Amino acid sequence: MTTPAGGAKTGPDGLARCPWSLGSADYLAYHDDEWGRPIRDDTQMFERLCLEAFQSGLSWLTILRKRENFRSAFRGFDLAAVAAFGPADVTRLLADPGIIRNRAKIEAAIRNANAALQLPVGLADLVWSYADQQRGAPVTLADVPAWTPASKALAAQLKRHGFGFAGPVTAYATMQASGVVNDHLEACAFRAGSPPRPLPDGGPGQVRWA
Prior knowledge:
By secondary structure, the protein is mainly α.
């Protein structure tokens, strides 16, 4: 996810957020409820990796708005189900207007499912093994890298195991999305989880933590 440099900005509810989240309601919900929350499940990690690969060269907003279509087309990103896809499934996916119809990315997703099933450890465990706990919180978007030495090492490991469309930038975006790294800005109210928010009836806030 690439955006202009900038610090945290106040959202419609008065809470400070990463500025990219204020571009649309879809971005806002994704930022507040999903992005950077720890994922330890192989299916969810595979989904993040696939969607980040499909996003390459496109707007992340496009992917968000097609995500439910992707989930349906790719059988909920179940590893065994996707690994079993054959030529008929590729043809079906290439004809599906609800997803990104890119043959190379579709075939890579199928290969990646097979590769994930062959890992000596789960996909989520592999990605988490490259977590870097030493980085400080970014102050502005200019402090958020496109890739890191850890994501480069992860990408190389994925490639060794047969993954495609999983270079250092895609690997880093997956690490961000799955909470392996926390790139919420220092002043973002959601850096440590979900802050108290007003109830729909305007009553006192309730705390929702990830």
